Amino acid sequence: MSHRRDRRILALALLLCAAGCALLLWLRPWERPAAAAGEVEFALHMIDVGQGDALLLTCGGKSMLVDAGPRDSAASLCAYLRGQGIRTLDYVVLTHFHADHSGGLREVFAQFGVGLFLVPDGPDDEQILAYAGELAGKNGCALGLACAGCVYPLAGAEVSVLSPEENADPDEENARSLVLLARYDKIRFLLTGDAPAELLEGLRLPRCDLLKVSHHGSTDGTSAKLLSRVSPAYAFISCGAGNEYGHPHESCLRRLTEAGAQVWRTDQQGTCVAAVTGGKVRVVTVR
Fold first, then answer.
1. Which of 163-167, 190-194, 196-200 has the lowest mean pLDDT?
2. pLDDT, tens digit, for every residue of 205-217?
């Protein structure tokens, strides 16, 4: 009888172990580190796409992708999005049309449904607008022109467009870059695209918990004046390891350190996720 009871206990233990493994495979917590505990209310994912930008905002089951990195990182970007359980993006936002921000768009539109595709209002290049219209048309989504004053809901969060203004320099692509302010309760994340510091200093900016550093940490994207006004606790820099531009520049890193910001970099730490729970921000990294 004891042998029969032992076999039953062993069988039950094996069954429970198998069920646990199946549950682990279904949840895939290693693919969703910020949401593994089921407690994250709002998150910003700075996805490692090498020398480029790709940011994912998530809140209450809704999602917004801001930029799509360079073309050679499109496969890894899409794999990361799938790993987060995303099949449809409520918004895809292109801050400006440089290839290190727009190169992965075709692959994103090919693999995911998109609710609304947002591009900066104002570019005079008909070729660019035709390209954006083509992507939106193939995906069956709406195309919107975003400018200062536009606000887009994201479940319990909202994303406001702070720039470009109507008088943005038409000959300078970075000056027409969308600047976004994401708000969740009292938490604020400032997303600057590649906007120059001079432009950012001219905007009415609140204090923010996190700054996505402009232009990959270049010399002209982040000034002491801007940091004094925004006073971020965290600074996210998206750049490629050993890139030819020297990003992030030492002068930018020094200003961030002097401002008291904790610096997180994709070239050193991989994908960085700022997760908000109970009014507090914590940062985790994914390699």
1. 163-167
2. 999 999 999 999 9
Q: Rounded to an integer, what distance in angstroms lies between the CA atom of residue 16 and that of residue 10? A: 10
Three-state DSSP string of the chain: CHHHHHHHHHHHHHHHHHHHHHHHHHHCCCCCHHHCCCCCCEEEEECCCCCCCCEEEEECCEEEEECCCCHHHHHHHHHHHHHCCCCEEEEEECCCCCHHHHCCHHHHHHHCEEEEEEEECCCCCHHHHHHHHHHHHHHCCEEEEECCCCEEEECCEEEEEEECCCCCCCCCCHHHCCEEEEEECCEEEEECCCCCHHHHHCCCCCCCCEEECHHHHCCCCCCHHHHHHHCCCEEEECCCCCCCCCCCCHHHHHHHHHCCCEEEEHHHHCEEEEEEECCEEEEEEEC
Written out in words, the top-level CATH class of the domain with range 34-286 is alpha beta
- For the entire predicted model, the pTM comes to 0.85
